[in-house]
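Title: Comparing notes on inverse folding

I've been comparing how different people in this forum approach sequence design from structure. To keep things fair, I'm posting one structure and asking everyone to reply with a full sequence. Here's the target:
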């Protein structure tokens, strides 16, 4: 019965894993779809990275956070290339590559969550405490916080996967399986530190941000009727902050919609043996968020659309292009 429904990953080995027998067209379609999404994710996030890195006007605290998020999303796009093998049911690479796949996956996820928290803090200070924003959230401080965020994620992932890193492939039951094992303590730590705690902070901060933004919007409508030219500049600046908060709120909302299903599976009380092939949909949904972020920027940020045109037309290769007025 098994020979009719499944095939061996490595027919020459008696210890090979079995994989479900699917129509070849399904497997080809899966690989093509994942490859296209991966290519699109890498390309779009590379455009974000080049834009913010190259143009001097974009060197702001908020944009540095978006740059770090784009690096994380770029990493996800590269990881997605290996997802086809896992979904197909057979891992054809080495055990070390399997472990590295999971390590990079968790680092990318952890860093994305960390940056989302920092983005929420950035918008909270900008809207709720604008007079001290330039000192509390200066580009210099953000440049320190971003590497710290990545270092903390690497340390956390190393502690979480210490048993899996001691001997790669020790938990697999057959040749061709890519699997890792988390004990109960590690699962709880992952759920609390990478989901419940950061998501709670993000939601609380953004509820406060939009409450204050709504109050400011009402005040601005009244103020703009009687404001002098000097005051109007301040009103325009506040409008810009509110618009930025709204745009980044969309980014955070999309992130929550894509990532929450993955952790809901964990909350449902799945077995400690976590095999990606058994939860391919929710993982691919979480991955797809990395492709959506640059599309949100394209919809809401004129500077991103303008910078993409300059990059695609190779205008950035001209001397002094980094000083282009990208915000006009």
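Reply #1:
Here's my take.
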């Amino acid at each position: 019965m098994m020979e009719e429904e499944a095939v061996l990953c490595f027919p020459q080995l008696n210890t090979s894993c079995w994989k479900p027998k699917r129509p070849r067209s399904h497997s080809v379609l899966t690989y093509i779809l994942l490859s296209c999404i991966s290519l699109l994710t890498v390309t779009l996030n590379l455009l974000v990275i080049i834009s913010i890195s190259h143009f001097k006007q974009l060197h702001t605290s908020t944009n540095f956070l978006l740059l770090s998020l784009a690096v994380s999303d770029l990493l996800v796009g590269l990881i997605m290339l290996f997802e086809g093998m896992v979904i197909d049911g057979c891992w054809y690479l080495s055990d070390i590559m399997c472990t590295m796949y999971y390590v990079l996956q968790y680092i990318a996820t952890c860093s994305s969550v960390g940056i989302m928290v920092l983005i929420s803090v950035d918008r909270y200070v900008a809207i709720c405490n604008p007079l001290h924003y330039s000192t509390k959230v200066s580009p210099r401080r953000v440049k320190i916080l971003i590497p710290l965020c990545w270092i903390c994620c690497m340390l956390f992932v190393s502690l979480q996967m210490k048993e899996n890193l001691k001997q790669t492939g020790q938990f697999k039951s057959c040749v061709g399986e890519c699997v890792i094992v988390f004990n109960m303590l590690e699962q709880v730590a992952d759920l609390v530190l990478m989901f419940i705690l950061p998501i709670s902070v993000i939601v609380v901060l953004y509820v406060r941000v939009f409450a204050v933004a709504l109050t400011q919007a009402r005040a601005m409508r009244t103020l703009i009727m009687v404001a002098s030219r000097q005051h109007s500049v301040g009103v325009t600046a506040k409008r810009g902050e509110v618009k930025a908060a709204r745009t980044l709120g969309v980014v955070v909302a999309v992130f929550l919609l894509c990532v929450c299903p993955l952790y809901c599976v964990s909350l449902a009380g799945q077995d400690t043996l976590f095999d990606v092939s058994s939860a391919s949909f929710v993982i691919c949904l979480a991955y797809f968020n990395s492709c959506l972020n640059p599309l949100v920027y394209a919809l809401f940020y004129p500077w991103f659309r303008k910078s993409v045109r300059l990059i695609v037309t190779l205008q950035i290769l001209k001397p002094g292009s980094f000083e282009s007025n990208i915000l006009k």
